[in-house]
Amino acid sequence: MPSRIKFGSPEPAETPAAPPKPAFPAPAAASPHKLDSLKRPPPNGTAGSPAPPKKRKLVVFDEEAEQEAKERANGAGEASPQVNGNGGVKRRAAWGPEQKRKAKEEAQRLRPEREKLPVFQGKDAILKGIADNDTVIVLAETGSGKTTQIPQYILRSEIPCAGPRIVCTQPRRVAAISLAQRVSAECGTQTGGLVGYTVRFDNKTSRTTRLTYATDGALLAEMLGDRDLEAYDVVVLDEAHERSLRTDMLMGFLKDIQKRRKEKVRAWKAEQAKSKGKAKANGVVANGEADGKKSAEERDPTELKIVVMSATIDAKRFSDFFDRAPVLYVAGRQHKVKIHYAEEPQPDFLDAALKTVYQIHMRYPPGSILVFLPGQEEIEGLAASIKSFLPSLQKEYPDAEELLVTPLYAKLHAAEQAKAFLPSPPRTRKVILATNIAETSVTIPGVKYVIDCGLAKEKRYHAGTGIDSLVTESISQSSAKQRAGRAGRETDGFCFRLYTEATYNGLEKRSQPEIQRVSLTFAILHLLASGQDDVFKFSFMDPPDVESIKFALLTLIGLNALDKRGKITPLGRQMAQLPLDPVYARVLVASFVEGCPREIIDLVSLLGSKDQLLINTSSTRDAANAARQKFVHRTGDHMMLLNILRAYEELDGKDERKQWCKDNFISFKAMSSVLDARKQLLERAQRLKLGDPDASAGDEAEPVLNALIGGLFANTALRQEDGSYRHTMTKQLVAIHPSSTLHGKKAPAIIYDELVLTTKTYARGVSSIEPSQIRSKAPSLFGSSLK
Ligand SMILES: Nc1ncnc2c1ncn2[C@@H]1O[C@H](COP(=O)(O)OP(=O)(O)OP(=O)(O)O)[C@@H](O)[C@H]1O
User: Fold this and answer.
1) Which of 2, 59, 193, 580 could pair with 584 in a Cys bridge, judged by C-beta atoms 3.0 to 4.6 Å apart?
2) How far is the CA of 21 from the centre of ligand 1 (A)?
3) Measuring CA to CA, which residue among 518, 622, 608 is closest to residue 247?
4) For residue 310, which atom of ligand 1 is closest to its CA?
């Protein structure tokens, strides 16, 4: 068993489940020592849990019935169609009467819990604040009910109109999906009915959806087709403290949209008054009054309400940005979170995390443990070391609860991520090892303990070289508070910070806005496509670096998305409408010229799930590489991905495909996502009339590589006489990443998906090309200077 580490005062509380309290041994004591005798703790929820709420009569909204009536009115059948973000319509299987009954019961069961949340006390004040102001900032503790409750309060109000339509943004897709599911359960309705979600390549909303949890990126994409966001009456910007690139962009846009919509309503009202006057004079009843309720399409224009929410923002800055919007403070926290700091700095945070997991397991009552770690590598490392101690735990303490380790990181497929949210099996304590994707908004049921290593991997972008590097850095105080806030959501909780209090006090108060540290190519193209002609004048809360803007403009000019004067071209407009990074959007457009759209649509769909597709854990890496040898293509990684998809599609039946995926260390679920993404891209390409998306180059690799160069020409390097590769423009040294099938091989020139900076500058996702191909496909950039 691992030894213990010392946490400073207050000492961990003695609990009914705790064994006799031992003195903490020195933190670095290397030799595993025996665990204290373990008494079985009482089952979850029986010790110290509050008395069950008294039964009382509840007023329950029959939202499902309301929904059905609306669907019938809209001409929909039993199953309501889901309009996906790309205009496609999926059918949602309707619930049967038994499912409806169960959902209603569950909603009733959740109701008293919801009424205990701190925001419930402030409900009237919050609604009044929103009704009286264009924009409000809501500041309330983590877990107080902001994200799940406030949008529901608005839903049942008449702000700013009867039956308001609300969108609540989230910086992360995992949060958007899990919130929509939770709030649907609270409403007793099916996800995608009254409450739904929209994230890239996945949309669960229907005509009856009135509350949508959307990623900030999905809402931005919607703005390209609905410039003033007329589909919504209220936009709730949640987790504003994260300062994600897309939330910052939305804030700038929303200010203008709000003004435009106000003006529209004013003009419309004047028009209405005029025609009413005329009608009265002629003895006719005005249309709206005679027709009763109007359908969604004919709704009267509304002003846009904006609600900005967080637990940890600098409220004054946000208030100033939104023209001194009032700040509503919601007092209180439903459950306490006790913070423990390490008494001494921990030189090895993985070792400290391991010790703390076992320390909690042996001393504290049941409850899942959520451990925050920087990335996948650390998650895999800690999972392995936790598991290595399990046999001795079972041997020495046969009565002890099991430990179940579940990872949670962005590259993990959604179905695997979902496992972290499932309840723990009986007599089992779950240990969720997560990156900062679990930091905000999410409630992982059953989590009572948080272990925070104080670090996160952040993307840093170097304008000028185009290098993205993932750097492990200390988190901010705001992030630390958010992490602690993941405990204590259902009961009181504990947060163990693997750093000292002095270290905490020295952390930055807030995280640096993403807009100041990532590539701006997407942002600039989007601003221009949305009608923002001068990007330097856009209303950013924290303007990005001028050099980064210039670099993005030059890249977009190189892609022909902008003309030489920086004006968006028709091609640029098409690119902005593709749900892809501008570079890959350009590759897709180029594929129609090269005669290989079929292959490129497949390839960009594969690249979208690339990280989840090939299962590469440290323990299975060799076996996986051996199994996948048969897909290797002489030109490298891109054609190999296509080979994998082709082989998969030749198989019949789900079972056969599943087994094949298992044998080849390929994620079946990720493959399903690839096929979904492909379908959506095909629809989008057809809608944009880019050409025949079925045109194919057959087995030929050259057209595919040419199309790749059409967008990725800035991601190319030439082999030098000494065997090294140098970037075509910057002449910087670039090495082929060991994960590439071209690693150790000689290619005259290479094209790659990304550069990452670790011990060297590595190219990942690499294919071999000829210098002449670069010359002919990207002449404007390189001219004859290729050497
Ligand atoms: N999926 C879920 N399962 C169980 N309980 C949940 C779930 N989602 C929310 N809750 C309960 O609702 C409470 C409020 O959650 P909510 O996300 O609305 O809080 P919040 O104030 O937005 O928190 P944060 O600032 O951390 O996002 C949680 O503390 C928890 O008790």
Assistant:
1) 580
2) 33
3) 518
4) 25
